[in-house]
Amino acid sequence: MTLGRILTTDDCMREGAAWLARAEPRFAAALDLCGTPPLRRRADGFAALMGAIVSQQVSTAAARAIQGRLDAAGLTEPAAIVAADDEALRTAGLSRQKIRYIRALAQAGIDFDALRTAPDDQVVATLVEIPGIGRWTAEIYAMFSLGRADVFAPNDLALQESARLLFELPDRPKERALREFAQPWSPWRTVAAGMLWHYYHHAKNREGIA
User: Are 141 and 49 in contact (CB under 8 A)?
Assistant: First the structure.
C-alpha cells in the first residue's frame, strides 16, 4: 500500500475543500458558510503521543499543568520515563493508569521516523497496540501530526454531531455508521473532518449546542 497525499499548506486544504464541494452539495454549503478550515499540524513523535495520554479525561488546564511539571522534571523522553520511579510520575500529577500507559509508550520502541512514510492503516495499527492509545488517538495523530489527507476519526463526538446537522440526519451517527458514511469523501477525508469541525463550531455558536 502506497503513502497517500500529505497536507503541508493551506493550499492543500483549499484543494481538498474544493473537491469535496464539487462532490457533495452539503460540503459546498458548508464551504460557503464557514470558509476553508485551516491546516492544523502538530509535532509528531513520542511527546505528541505522551501529551495525548496526559490529556485523557482531564481539562485542558489540568493537562497543561501536568505537562508543565513533566517538562520541569525532565520527564519528556522515553529513557527518562523508563528510568523514573512511580513516585516521580505521580508527583507530576499522573494517575496510576496513565503511568502504566506512558511507561508502555516509552518501552514500545516505536520508530517514529518510519511512521512518517508508513501507510495510514499501518500507522493506526502500530499505535493502537500500545495500551492507552485507542483508534481515535491514532487517527488524530495520523491526521494532525503526520498530515495524512485521507484519514477520518468517526468516534469523535463533534464530527458525529456536525454530520447530523449538516446532512440533516435523524440521529447522531455512531462510529461504524459514520465511517461508512465518510467513504465517498476519500481521498480527502481529513479535509472533510476539518470542514465538519469548522461547521460544528459555527453551528454551536449560532444555536448554543452543548
Answer: yes
Q: What pTM, to 2 d.p., does this model score?
A: 0.91
CA nearest 4: which of 158, 187, 171? 187
Q: Where in the chain is the domain with CATH 1.10.1670.40?
A: 10-39+150-207
Fold of 46-145: Endonuclease III; domain 1 (1.10.340)
Cα–Cα distance measured from residue 178 to residue 149, given in angstroms and rounded to the nearest whole number? 18
* Cα–Cα distance list, 163 to 11, 155, 168, 187, 192 (Å): 24, 12, 8, 18, 10
Q: C-alpha cell of 11?
A: 493550499
Burial of 7-24, coded b for 16+ CB within 10 Å and e otherwise, reads beeeebbbbbbbbbbeeb
Q: Maximum distance among all alpha carbons in the chain?
A: 56
- Provide the grid cell at 15: 484543494
pLDDT at residue 210 is higher than 80: no
User: What is the CATH number that goes with domain 10-39+150-207?
Assistant: 1.10.1670.40
